[in-house]
Design brief:
- One of its GO terms (biological process) is retrograde transport, endosome to Golgi.
- InterPro entries: Syndetin_C, VPS50.
- One of its GO terms (cellular component) is EARP complex.
- This is VPS50 protein.
- The protein is mainly α and 129 residues long.
- It has two domains: 76 residues, no CATH class; 51 residues, no CATH class.
- 70% of the residues lie in helices and 0% in strands.
- Helix 1 packs parallel to helix 3, helix 2 runs antiparallel to helix 3 and helix 4 runs parallel beside helix 6.
- The chain starts with 5 loop residues before the first helix and ends with a helix.
Length: 129
């Protein structure tokens, strides 16, 4: 057995938790369809994950917790709120943002509105001239 000093252990936990949270968002970004029940299950799964983490480690606050929560909550946004949200949340990848538009608003908005939101995502991705 090799004892790991507490500060090193905490750093390892922090990195593992951050990676797990980023992986969760990436997984949610791969969803092809999502019902209201599916969105609720995302939140429930994440809450269960947090409860288990809190028993395993003393790291507080949980790294990137807000990153996951914010992404899940974005599934509930309306078309008007989504454009503002996209511009305010540049921490998400183009793929993650595009999925939000296509999955959560896909059936609720017309093609023109979807194209407008996808164009807003593309504008964020372009380098400034």
């Amino acid at each position: 057995r090799v004892r790991i000093p507490l500060p090193v252990s905490n750093i390892l936990w922090e990195h593992c938790i951050r990676l797990a949270n980023r992986t969760l968002v990436e997984g949610y970004a791969n969803v092809k369809k999502c019902s209201n029940e599916g969105r609720a299950l995302m939140q429930l799964d994440f809450q269960q994950f947090l409860m288990k983490l809190e028993k395993l480690t003393d790291i507080r606050p949980i790294p990137d917790k807000e990153f996951v929560e914010t992404y899940i909550k974005a599934y509930y946004l309306t078309e008007n709120d989504m454009e503002r949200w996209i511009k305010e949340h540049r921490e998400y990848s183009t793929k993650q943002l595009t999925n939000l538009v296509n999955v959560c608003l896909g059936s609720h908005i017309n093609k023109k509105a979807r194209q407008k939101l996808l164009a807003a995502i593309d504008d964020l991705d372009r380098p400034k001239r």
